[in-house]
Amino acid sequence: MDLQKDYIMYISESYLYAIIVLLNREYRLVFMKKTISIGLFLIISVFVYGIDQGVIINEVASTGAYEFIELHNPDATPIDLDERWSLIDSKEGIADADTAILIPKGTIIEAGGYLVIAPYKTQLLSDAVPEEIPEDVLAVESFWLSSHDELTLMYEDTILESISWETSVNSMGRDPDDPGNFISGVLVPTPGEKNERDPLALGTTDIVINEVCSKGIDFIELYNNGDTDYEFSSGDWTLHDSRRNDSFVIPDGTTIKSHGLLVIYPDLIRLPLSAPRYSIASQEGNRFGLSERDTIYLRYKNSIVDMTSWMLHVSSKGRYPDGSASWDEDLLLSPGKTNRN
Ligand SMILES: [Ca+2]
Ligand SMILES: [Ca+2]
Fold first, then answer.
1. pTM higher than 0.70 for the full model?
2. Which ligand is nearest to the Cα of residue 187, counting in written order?
3. Any residues with CB less than 8 A from the CB of 178 and at least 6 apart, and which?
């Protein structure tokens, strides 16, 4: 196996800062994506040691209905795998105590095909495969993929490819339009199928996410950059998080004033006493808990029109000033009121 050193660049948007660090003659690329315009903050590093390895990591999900790793054979001939091929999950190159996934002998990935592996850990006495994992997926009791983790594809003792992530990834994978690039946060999970971009229409609506609180009583504050009041129509507008919990549908007839605010409590059925005048709670119960290393998405007619990510829990992450392109993770808490720092 020719270990030609090469690398894959992670570039999906124009506003990226790249830091290249030379470590022991290995190129380590760390890309920090700090957006001003959409407030997405992700750190992803990708190591690629052998480009001609045949099998590649194509997609990873650490959240959603079940965690999965998708391998892909981009070649025109099937590849026959066995236990010499393995996957480990480790941090900073040091294998943790988890069990490696050994690919069972006789596993074939057809030409242009995919192999979906669902790693899981069970704390139960039973070693049954969790019921949410589909039967056509290779379920292996091994490890959890966490919200900040690293995954390495090995052939015997040789590292072929390693990818890592710093926030929950419901789908991190190769860009379908440019398979040399890994992207995260903007793919639809597609286990066993070609990767697919989520429809993006960032910055196209006057309504934006203005403030997020993931500590205590979670809320999301929206802001209307438009010069007229706006009435939401049912089903058109939803909020969801990177854990792929149920989305929150903004109810029909809800209004937001011109240059005004609307506060949404996605986890509460009744508004708290402290709720501001223009606020709504969930009509269907707990939608999602905002956690650390999470992302919140605002969708209009199924396109993502705004999104923002954070690492540690945020008490008040918001646009400052209201509705502007600049984000601050350390604002004063101001649900329903103008953002202050
Ligand atoms: Ca896929
Ligand atoms: Ca506010």
1. yes
2. 1
3. none
